[in-house]
Amino acid sequence: MQQRTEANETFRFGPFRLIVPQKLLLKGHEPVAIGSRALDILIALVERAGEVVSRRELVGRVWPDVVVEEANLRVHIAGLRRALGDGQDGARYIANVPGRGYCFVASVERRAKADLPAGVPPARILPQTLPVRLQRMVGRDETIETLCAEVMSQRFVTVVGPGGVGKTTVAVAAAHELAAEFQDAICFVDLSALKDGALVVSAVASAVGCLSETQDSLPRLLATLADRRILLVLDSCEHVIEFVATLTEGLFREAPEVHIIATSRETLRVQGENVHPLQSLDTPSNEVALTAAEALASPAVRLFVDRAAAGGYRHDLTDEEAPTVADICRQLDGMPLALELTASRASTYGVRSLAQLVGNRLMLLWKGRRSVPRHQTLTAMLDWSYDLLSEQEKSILCTLSIFVGSFTLEMAQAVASDPAHDGFQVLDLVASLVDKSLISVSRAGNAASYRLLDTTRAHAGIKLRERGDADAVARRHALHFAERLAGLRINGLDESDLAAHARHVGDIRSALEWSFSDAGDSSIGVALGAGATPVFLAISMLSECRRWCLRTLDALPEQVRGTRLEIGLQLALAISSHHAHSDSTEVARALERGLSLADSLGDSEYQLELLAGLNVYGTRFADAAAPLAAAERYASIARERGGSREIVAAEWMLGSSHHLVGNQALAQQSYERGFKRAAAAGVGEVHSFGYGHQARALIGCARTLWLRGLPDQAAQLAYEGIEVAGRQAQSVSFSICLAYAYAVPVFLWRGDLQVAEDIIDRLIAHAARYSLASYHAAGLGLRGELMMAKGDAQLGIALLRDALPILQAQQRYIFSSASSRALAEGLTRIGHAAEATIIIDAILADAMRGSGTFEMPDLIRTRGEVLLAASPKNWPEAEASLKNSLDLARRQSSLGWELRSAILLSRWWQERGRHEEARTLLADVYARFTEGFQTFDLQQAARQLRALGARPSRNGRS
Q1: What is the DSSP secondary-structure string of 378-401?
Q2: Same domain assignment for residues 380 and 406
Q3: How many structural domains is the chain composed of?
Q4: Alpha helices (H) along 121-196
Q5: In a domain, 587, yes or no
Q6: Residues 438, 420: one domain?
Q7: What is the domain extent for residue 309?
Q8: Is the dihedral angle over the CA atoms 689, 691, 697, 703 positive or is it negative?
Q9: Mind listing the pLDDT tens digit for each residue in 165-212?
């Protein structure tokens, strides 16, 4: 007889490789789906290829210390033959030798070292979101093997069965088996923590790592997962089934690489779902003379014995006890959770007392609950488990059911401590409930978090209401989070604090719901709302932030109105509404009310925050005077009462405002002073009103430098601004979109079309992911300008027509003005000068009603171009427009606009024989440039000068 295979050996036969160290069967380079029992049988046969291995030897090898019927062996042999293709195309691997056993008959090549092929992972490192697989599972090997095959072939499988049947255990085990298929991209989402189905999307987004990106939006989640290959395990769907149904149907339809395992007590009944019914464990037959060995052949009894030992029961199953244990298992319908809960009490009550409890209590409860579908068995089991607890344990268990998600011991003490239970007693009782498997524990490093199982929480919540304690516990729960969040400020959360609070956002929302309910206490809600809004803002839950700002402001008592608390709420409302709701009236009202209160209190911190908001908000409109006034007042307060950070921010805001109003020389000075002071004081980022102002300043300065005739320096700063925006931990969605949207024109102006196209693609994708409609529309408008620059006027016009209604509706003038000008140019190119005239005249009218705009020279240039295209008779007016554009560009210190108008007017004069005037005009403007001679406008100017017989000179040098 051959020796057993060494730990590092591998075998080859036919197209297969059996790699023992990894317990892996490969066909070519592809893993073969095969259960662990079948694989053990294969190893036992292959290592003794050519010999007959008896059935008894195989059973002893694969099922040590367990009595198993030969039928189980035959089932696994049949499955193994199917996996190998035994009997197909003449292949023959396993022969049945009647009366003796089985023999591996194929030729086997044996190697001393495993030859794991490239691309097959040597180990499986599972992500932290996936719970640890049970070291020993009973009676589920074939189920897991089948489930894995269904998931791979069908993509979407719902494991359906009554509560306590082991759906989660099976789903987790299958996910572990499939780890290599998904390169460890497996996300486990415990939906049992949710009391509100509206939280399903955010729970899934959190598990896959994109919570701040989705902001509770299903379309954004679907877009995020559209091209990701992951296995998503959605556990305990039944209480939020409608929401999960919508989510999973969307994922199946729009995310073709996402595979789903769901567990539920009922089917989801949606497209793509494949139902896998999960049955309870087999129980022993009802025989009075059942022996221990016969009872242990039943998976239900084996599970009971295993869990009893884990719970401290130190006695082997005897023949005398076997019928009693078998009876317990039958009465519990072989339900794994019921068996585990019962067995864990064996050390306390003993087997016979447990049987009496089951017979006298649990079964009566089952009969009493038959009118409640789906819950009868589980409710009865949990009622029985609840009845086994002491009065103090019941009280604490019911109290802890208030937590929507996980909780710490500190949180448990805060909510459960009362005159009947001091803090130390709460700790002891929590530990007792952990021991009794009613509370689960998760550890990350030295930190531990606690959680009630889903069905336990639901059951305990009912009991809490029956005890009449629900409102008292909800009050303590809300007070705890109000105290926990007290003092939080917008932009005042570091990454560690943010992560700590974000984990409990479900509890925060639940506490807010209770506080503002009829049974709640709005005074707690006011304190909680004030503390919660900075958290909602920091994780980009803008709609949620706006909702609770409005509720909290509406509930403010008279004595709180006009305080710093109201100012913070008005600021949070302005930020969330500005970015997510686009209600300009609401934003303006919140900013004005907040600033008025801050002024009356002399609160410089809030004055600066709100003035920064007015500066950012004012950039949406045609009148650039408002953001400039806000920036000037901000600068005044910053110089008087602010620090280095505020003084730097003031210079950046002044730079942005001077740029928009059209004073590029002052804009450059302010920006550069800000950068210099930031470097000297070690100031990096400044956050306010949802933006990172360093990135905003870098991009704004880049635009200013292009206008000033420094296109190479402009490109360098634009790249730096995009990089800074991408590094920011908070407000990243707005900062990145702002950086992209403001940076693209720099590259379009330079003629760097490929760079511009790449950034536009990123802008549109990012804005779509975060549902930032105005930035998405800005991206479409910029793509329209890009298409025009590439010569595709028809596509450019179509894109601009799509973008403009959104930009105009949301009053995003800084984007809509450029898009309208580009649309007028495009219409002129295709011969629609009449419509182009209407559009350009309307833009100019808007601009002239305001305090001026940096775009005015370019708008006037475009109007001249449109006029001449409409009719040659318009030559005098068109020429006057170009001269006006040149004059205004010089007054704005905008050499970039001046060159564009000079190029056009020089060409017109050349066409009319005025060569000397054309040459002199263009040469003078061209000579004032010191860099950027490879950019589009300067190359065009150089060609035109050569056509006029002039040698282009740079900065006065020939």
Answers
A1: HHHHHHHHHHTS-HHHHHHHHHHT
A2: no
A3: 6
A4: 141-154, 167-177
A5: no
A6: yes
A7: 292-384
A8: negative
A9: 788 889 999 998 888 888 658 888 888 767 778 888 888 887 787 765
